[in-house]
Write a structure and sequence with these properties.
Blueprint lengths: L5 E4 L1 H4 L1 H4 L5 E5 L2 E5 L17 E6 L4 E6 L1 E2 L5 E2 L2 E5 L2 E14 H5 L4 H4 L17 E15 L4 E4 L14 E5 L2 E9 L4 H7 L5 E3 L13 E10 L4 E3 L15 E5 L2 E9 L2 E10 L4 E6 L11 E2 L2 E5 L7 E9 L4 E9 L8 E2 L12 E4 L4 E5 L21 E4 L5 H11 L5 H5 L3 H13 L2
Parallel strand pairs: 6-11
Antiparallel strand pairs: 1-5, 2-3, 3-4, 4-5, 7-9, 8-9, 9-10, 10-11, 12-13, 13-15, 14-15, 15-16, 17-18, 18-19, 19-20, 21-23, 22-23, 23-24, 24-25, 26-27, 27-28
C-alpha cells in the first residue's frame, strides 16, 4: 500500500468524513469497518454526494481511520445502495445514483437509464460526443464488486432477470450468493410482470403518480439473488408468507436465517420481524406489526446488527430510525434468538442519541459501531437545517477480549507503561504506539 493510496490520521480529525453522511453503506471485513458512498445534507452550491472513488477504513485495534483510493469500474456517486461482503469482495447493488447524460438525450425525452452508463466518480463533465453533458440521477439495479485486497472495482454484467430498479433496499450474503430484498423505485416493466409477477408484489406511491413531471415509484418485496458462481441473477421461489412491500428496512443474517425488520410501506412505518430460512427458502413471522409498548415502535431507516450471545442462535441489536411521527429515534433494542417466544428488550444503557439513515457494523463479538446518519427530521422543509451525526457511536454488547481491555487500559495510562511497551513484540508495539499517537 503506497503512501498516496492510504492516509492515516487521528480519529478526531478524520471522523467528520464518515459522520457527515447519510444513505451510505458500512460493512465488516477482517476486523475492520469499511464505509462508502452516501451524501451530505445542507449543500446548496456544492456536490452533496461523497466520492465513490474512495473507501474509509476503521481499524478497531489501532482505533484509527484511513482513506483508500480505489480504481477500475468505479460506480457513480450514490445514496441508498446496499452492500455486503463475501470473503474478500464487497458487493454494492442498486441505489440512487448521480449520473451524467447529454442534453441531446434529455431533449429527446430519453430516460437517464437508457442513455448513460455508471461512470467513475470523476466523470461528471465527460463528453461522449453527443454534445454538452449535464448531471442527472437514476435509480439503479446494477451490481458492482470491489476487491478488498487490490481495491479494484468491477461492474458485473450478470445473466438472468435483474432486480427491479430501487434504492433503500437491503442485501446480504449466504453461501456463494448475494441476496437483495425490497426497495423503492419505478414499477416493473410489463415484460417483468409477465415473467416474474407471481414472485413479488409492487405497491405504487400515490404521491408520485400525478402532477407535472411525475415519476411513478413504489415499494416492492422482491427477493433476488446474484449467483457469484454462475454470474447470473436468480429469483428464488419461496414458501410461507413473505413480508409486505417495503423500503428503508433492515436485514441481519444469523446462521442460516435472514431476519427482516420494519421499513416503510405506503404511509406506515412498520415494526414487524420476519425470518427467511435460507436453506428451505421458507418465510415465517416472528413478531407481527403491533402498537404494543414492549416492542420498538414502527420505523424506517434504522439499523439491525447480528450479535454473538454465547448461544448458537445468536441475537440482534437494533438502533435508531425514523418513526410515524417523523421523529428521529435514539432507542436501542436487543433480541436473544434462543428465547421462545422471541421478544425485544430495550437497552437504555446503550442509547447515545438519535440517528436515522445511518449504518452499523459489528466490529467483533463485543462491539457494534454506529456510523453517520442524521439526528433530526429528514423530511422537514428545505429551510430547516438537517443535522448530521457528530461522532461515531460504539455499543458494547458483550465483554471485550483481554487484548482489547489491555489496549484500552495501556492507552489511557500510557505514561505508566513506556518501558513495558518497548519490550512488546513488534506488531503489538506498533498497535500500542499508533493508538497512543492518535489520541485514542
Amino acid at each position: 500500500m503506497s503512501d498516496h493510496d492510504s492516509i492515516v490520521e487521528p480519529v478526531a480529525k478524520l471522523e467528520d468524513n464518515v459522520n457527515k453522511r447519510a444513505g451510505h453503506v458500512a460493512v465488516s471485513h477482517r476486523g475492520r469497518a469499511l464505509v462508502w458512498g452516501g451524501y451530505m445534507e445542507n449543500q446548496v452550491d456544492n456536490d452533496q454526494y461523497w466520492s465513490s472513488g474512495e473507501v474509509w477504513l476503521y481499524n478497531s485495534l489501532t482505533h484509527t481511520w484511513s482513506s483508500h483510493r480505489t480504481h477500475g469500474d468505479i460506480p457513480s456517486k450514490c445514496s441508498g445502495a446496499a452492500a455486503t461482503v463475501m470473503e474478500d469482495t464487497m458487493y454494492v447493488v442498486a441505489g440512487f445514483h448521480k449520473i451524467v447524460v447529454s442534453i441531446k438525450s434529455l431533449r429527446e425525452g430519453a430516460s437517464a437509464h437508457e442513455n448513460s452508463d455508471h461512470g467513475s466518480d470523476s466523470s461528471d463533465s465527460e463528453d461522449d460526443g453527443s454534445g454538452p453533458m449535464v448531471s442527472s440521477v437514476e435509480i439503479s439495479n446494477s451490481i458492482w464488486s470491489l476487491d478488498l485486497n487490490s481495491y479494484s472495482w468491477t461492474k458485473l454484467e450478470p445473466g438472468g432477470d435483474p432486480p427491479l430498479r430501487c434504492d433503500k433496499t437491503a442485501c446480504w450474503t449466504f453461501d456463494d450468493k448475494v441476496y437483495l430484498f425490497g426497495g423503492f423505485g419505478p414499477p416493473p416493466a410489463s415484460t417483468q410482470l409477465d415473467k416474474l409477477g407471481t414472485l413479488f408484489q409492487f405497491c405504487e406511491d400515490p404521491t408520485t403518480t400525478s402532477g407535472y413531471g411525475s415519476y411513478t415509484r413504489g415499494w416492492s418485496n422482491q427477493l433476488v439473488a446474484y449467483n457469484s458462481a454462475s454470474n447470473k441473477w436468480e429469483w428464488p421461489v419461496c414458501t410461507g408468507q413473505a413480508p409486505s412491500p417495503r423500503a428503508a428496512h433492515s436485514v441481519s443474517v444469523v446462521g442460516s436465517m435472514a431476519y427482516v425488520f420494519g421499513g416503510r410501506h405506503l404511509d406506515t412505518r412498520l415494526n414487524d420481524l420476519h425470518c427467511l430460512d435460507l436453506v428451505t427458502l421458507k418465510w415465517s413471522l416472528v413478531v407481527a406489526d403491533t402498537d404494543a409498548l414492549n416492542v420498538p415502535v414502527g420505523r424506517s431507516w434504522q439499523t439491525m446488527t447480528p450479535i454473538h450471545t454465547g448461544k448458537e442462535e445468536g441475537g440482534l441489536v437494533m438502533y435508531g430510525g425514523f418513526d410515524n411521527n417523523l421523529t428521529a429515534l435514539g432507542d436501542c433494542w436487543r433480541m436473544d434468538l434462543n428465547q421462545q417466544p422471541s421478544g425485544w428488550v430495550r437497552c437504555s444503557h446503550l442509547e447515545l442519541g438519535p440517528r436515522l439513515w445511518h449504518a452499523a457494523v459489528g466490529l467483533d463479538t463485543s462491539q457494534v459501531m454506529i456510523v453517520g446518519g442524521l439526528t433530526n427530521n429528514i423530511l422537514a422543509p428545505s429551510f430547516v437545517a438537517k443535522h448530521h451525526a457528530e461522532k461515531v457511536l460504539f455499543l458494547r454488547v458483550s465483554p471485550p477480549s483481554l487484548l482489547k481491555l489491555c489496549l484500552e487500559y495501556i492507552t489511557k495510562h500510557r505514561d505508566l507503561f513506556n518501558k513495558e511497551v518497548e519490550e512488546l513484540p513488534l506488531s503489538l508495539k506498533r498497535i500500542v504506539k499508533i493508538r497512543c499517537s492518535s489520541g485514542a
